[in-house]
Amino acid sequence: MRKKPKTNRVRVIGGGLAGVEAAYHLASRGIEVDLLEMRPSTMTDAHKTPLLAELVCSNSFKGDDPHTAHGLLKKEMRALNSVVLKVADRTRVPAGKALAVDRYAFANHITQLVESQGPINLIREEVKGIDTDIPTIIATGPLTSDAFTKDLTSLTGRDRLYFYDAISPIVDADSITMDHVFFGSRWSPQSKDYLNCPMDKEQYYAFIDALLAADKVKPHAFEKKELFEGCLPIEVIASRGRDSLAFGPVRPIGLIDPRTGKRPFAIVQLRKENLKGDAYNMVGFQTRLTYPAQQRVFQMIPGLGSVKFLRFGSVHRNTFIDSPRILKKDLSLVKYPGVKLAGQIIGVEGYMESAATGIIVALSMLAYLKDIPFSPPPPSTAIGALIHYITDPNVEPFQPMNINFGIMEIPGVAKSIKKRSIIERESYTFRQWVDSQIQLNLK
Question: What's the CATH code of the domain at 353?
Fold first, then answer.
């Protein structure tokens, strides 16, 4: 049996969503936490502020409907007192059935909350190495620094992995030509949550031709072109067929142009980026086009002919480890039980997925400090399914994963009724697991 650690102080490295959740949950249980965040002294290519939990991609946390996999995940996180979701609910902006936030208000609120949390000591410095004698949670995210990645690689004995993620442009609301667009969300024409730019068939194909011919940012020679399927640049989707965007990000289903009374051939949707509504995010328009190409091609979209870009889209490299070969079910390194990992660096893809592992790793670390065993939720739950996927040695090749019903397991249930069975059983199964944590004094 391992020796119980001599300290009740924990290092959490990384101030993103997972790191914040881990630090908050440990501190709320009386554990002293050193939360280390390298920004602003050392910035990444994607971050713009020194704020904790800064959202560098979309400002949407996806759907909140409990009949969807994303909704089930949020329901479980709320049952575990997620601080990320608490703040998201306070800073949300209209987005139909999705939970979207004012990204600055969200990050600023999180930062203030952490700074006022007594047991958390926020340290602004880059960590370049790991001391395995100190209970440590690594939540450095997909933009982990080269120095820290090198040390982690040395510790695990595995080469680092990475894929490319892309972010969508943000435009100035005042520069949108409102005569050419209309408000409405799918199946809810009276909604003001989305601003829609309708395209007819001729406009759509002219846009596709320009998109495919536009200049792209070229990767460095040492970089592989590994793109995450759940967040493909629009030009990559378009390259798979000229109609692929019309059946994907710009599908017109559920939307009627009130000026014509007809459904457009295609629709580019804009979602509010902040509470003031003075900025809009181009939904699903993540891209690796050069900045001049973005301005030229995207201004072909009706309503955006004179649009001002507050942020262009871009592509950045995301680092993640080979978790199925490196991590145990409690999210600790195989050889170092006191070193645990959470967030996108372990191969979960998405804001909520990352935050959820931050909660679980905090409970796992608490069990480690108490010298008691820890088991994650079962794979028939949303959180448990994610953890099972990233720690299953049979997963090969390993690629980051969003929550979805496909990875949630119910033995002996036919595929035709799998989704309904998962929804029916998930609440009871998750409640049983939560009760077991209460008995272990972890919850």
Answer: 3.50.50.60
Task: Specify the DSSP class assigned to residue 401.
Answer: B
The answer to whether residues 178 and 115 belong to one domain is no
Q: Is residue 3 part of a domain?
A: no
Q: Output the average pLDDT for the chain.
A: 88
End-of-domain residue from the set 291, 317, 343: 317
- Degrees to nearest 5, angle at CA 343 with 112 and 117: 25
- Co-location of 92 and 186 in the same domain: no
| Same domain, residue pair 179 and 310 | yes
Terminal alpha carbon distance of the chain: 24
397 exposure class (CB count in 10 Å sphere: 0-12, 13-18, 19+): exposed
CB of 157 closer than 8 Å to CB of 232 = no
Q: Residue 23 is part of which domain span?
A: 9-160+321-439
Query: Does residue 173 lie within any of the structural domains?
Result: yes
**Residue 142 belongs to a domain:** yes
Q: Do 216 and 327 sit in the same domain of this protein?
A: no
Q: What is the pLDDT of residue 320?
A: 87
In degrees to the nearest 10, what's the CA dihedral of 358, 359, 364, 368? 90
* DSSP state for residue 53 in the 8-state scheme: T
DSSP run (H or E) holding 122: strand 120-123
The mean pLDDT value for 49-56 works out to 92
Q: At what angle do helices 69-79 and 351-370 cross, to 10 degrees?
A: 40
Q: How many domains does the chain have?
A: 2
Q: Average the pLDDT over 338-349 and give the result.
A: 94
pTM: 0.77
In the numeric block, the tokens 């003001």 are attached to 192
pLDDT band for position 124 (cuts 50, 70, 90):
very high
Which of 298, 317, 336 is the endpoint of a domain? Answer: 317
pLDDT over 90 percentage in the chain:
63
* Token pair belonging to 413: 């249930």
The pLDDT assigned to 317 comes to 72
pLDDT, tens only, 190-220:
888 899 999 999 999 999 999 999 999 876 4
Cα–Cα distance measured from residue 150 to residue 127, given in angstroms and rounded to the nearest whole number: 12
Closest by Cα among 432, 426, 431 to 68: 426
Is the pLDDT reported for residue 409 higher than 80?
Answer: no
Residue 4 lies in a domain: no
